[in-house]
Amino acid sequence: MNTTSVFQTDCPEVKVPVPLFLTMGLVSLGENFLVVLAVIRNRDLHSPMYCFICSLAAFNTIASLTKTWETLMIVLADVGQLEKRGSSETKLDDVMDSLLCMSFVGSISSFLAIAVDRYITIFHALRYHNIMTMQRTRAVLGVIWTMCGVSAVLMVRFFAAKFTMICFVVFFVVSLVIICFLYVYMFMLARIHALKIAALPTSGVGKCRWRCCSMRGALTLTILFGTFIVCWAPFFVHLIIIMVCPANPYCECYRSLFQLHMVLLMSHALIDPGIYAFRSAELRQTFRKMLLCSTWKPCS
After folding, report:
1. Per-residue model confidence (pLDDT) at position 9
2. Nearest-angstrom CA–CA distance, 278 and 115
């Protein structure tokens, strides 16, 4: 996907410094691994929502680790320590491609699962614990991880590159439409509830508090969805351009920004813990215990 084009273009390829890739990969690896560890250690976080957040963080951890590993291999190859087309290097490259494909599909799937979980929380609040049991949550996670692992191996080992790109684009667009529909629907419902409660004869403080909570929820949804689109869309536009107009010079100019698109993808893994995790009081308390305390007892 990042091959040098044989067609003439006035747009040189934009290069991102290797230290930036390494730094982003290591920081993202640490952040997401901390989220996974926090959810595993704290039994109070063993709920469907946090399980899906943990799944997302785990896929981001795999992506960060794989991208850091790949960057190190490129550096070693450039200095002559590795063969770029050796047998072992080719097999290792297939493994890394499979892990990256799995993390891409897994991140989108986990994001979709979180959106569905939020939808059930709002529209079926009284029956939420009956619908989203831990047994069903484990089953959903099992399906997600199995599907991602199998599809990644099949796409890298047995499918043509163009077919793989088509699958990625279709999956991204379908997931985007579903997530957009769920979030817009939830926002509209929250707006209707806010107007109904505002019309009730309650105190001004209560009305203000409800409006603040509604705005905070709307802002959170906007940040989640907006960040997802900004960080992921350029990469999939890149895939579409490869398939639709590989010889067009204007398309070549967009393709020259491939490394910047990868930086955006890695940035999403950096931002995810802040949006999904660090806005949670329970996770913040768990992080404080893990980082500042010598035991699992509350800090004094």
Report:
1. 57
2. 18
| C-alpha–C-alpha distance, residues 179 and 187, integer Å | 12
pLDDT at 187: 76
Tokens of 300: 């004094």
CA-CA distance, 35 to 71, in Å (whole number)?
Answer: 24
Q: How far is the C-alpha of 71 from the C-alpha of 270, rounded, in Å?
A: 17
Q: Rounded to an integer, what distance in angstroms lies between the CA atom of residue 97 and that of residue 120?
A: 35
Residue 156 pLDDT greater than 60, yes or no: yes
Rounded CA gap, 169 and 188, in Å? 28
d(CA 284, CA 44): 13
Tell me the C-alpha distance between 64 and 265, whole Å: 10
Q: What percent of the chain has pLDDT over 90?
A: 8
Closest C-alpha among 176, 151, 177 to residue 164: 151
**In which band, very low, low, confident or very high, does the pLDDT at 214 lie, cut at 50, 70 and 90?**
very low
